[in-house]
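Hello Y.,

Per our agreement to keep a running log of every chain we model this quarter, I'm adding this entry. I've kept the format consistent with earlier entries: sequence first, then predicted structure.
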Amino acid sequence: MNNAEDNFGYFAKTVSERLGIAKDTLRSWSLKLEAEGVKFERNARDQRIYYEKDIRALENMKELMDLQQPLNDVSKTIANKIEKSFYNKDKTIKNTEITPSVSQGENGLITQEKQMENFKKELIEELSNKQSEIMEQFKNDLTKEMSTVMQDRFENAVNEAVKMALLQERKEIKKQVVQEIEENTLQIASGMEKTDGKGILKRLKFW
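Predicted structure for the entry above:
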């Protein structure tokens, strides 16, 4: 690829056909990248213009999406690489020159396929690490939430038990008071009967 090709721009239709994806998918990916700070050049009609460096980034994005990686994570990773000019041709050549493994390869050059394969592994590893961090954070948040829920349930159970105990205690006290009243009533009635009985005997003896 010469410099002229590298500076030649393409519209969405051509890029989507080259990537083998729908135009709507390309638009969705572009919006995600723009949300991460990536800027695509636009013409007077506000159409995006994609250069070779952009297409290389989108090709890597497609590879990761084909591996069922989350779009948000892929977008962040690709945007980070774009910010570091990873997909620029000059950057690619420079990286190739300083990589120790290059000198061991045939003619001192590493093939683009090999380079892309290494880069894909790097991206997958980076995404896996991010997913692990997300899962760990999710577990921590879930644990805190469950602890709060369990604490609330425990407090509610204690409050309910206290209410039930107080209610039962009131019932017992009421029952005891009623029983004492009944006993006192019986005692009073019994005393009155004894008094009336003695009075009658006295009257009988008197006569």
